[in-house]
Amino acid sequence: MSRINLVTETAANAEQTELYGAIHDQLGMVPNFLKIFANSPAALRAFLGLHSIAGEGSLDAQTRERIALGLAEQNACEYCVSAHTAIGRKAGLSSAEIEANRAGSSQDAKAAIAVKFARSLAEHNGAVTTADLIEVRNAGYDDADIVEIITHVGMNVLTNILGKASRVEIDFPKVELQSA
Hints:
The chain is mostly helical. The protein has nine helices and no strands.
């Protein structure tokens, strides 16, 4: 049971209902973690805005999901591992790729560097080394890509924290943490 109230669709106020309608139109459902965010419509709007804008960047959907999976596992967020396993599959990631991402790598050499860099950013609170940045650039990522990776780290760390703090009920096919 969640430690923070889930704003159900029946209990939602007009603003929350409008936000839920937009989410449902895009996803076909309103995931529980967004029902936690909905306690503060301002926080939900901020997250949805960041998520939407971050999805418009140069990183492809598979790389974004690889990063999300690597961070969810690193940050021990079972909700996020479960959610991004399902979303990653829809984005075309294989089971073997998902396992590699959760372990902090990828079967794709370029994407492996992005996942590794993302996890280093999270682990060191952004204090990455010059060597880390050189490695990312040498893999073919430019400064815009690097800023987008950083943005995705921030967004995913936020959802990992929300998932863990709230202990939100998993509403995706449950995937246990590798360390569990």
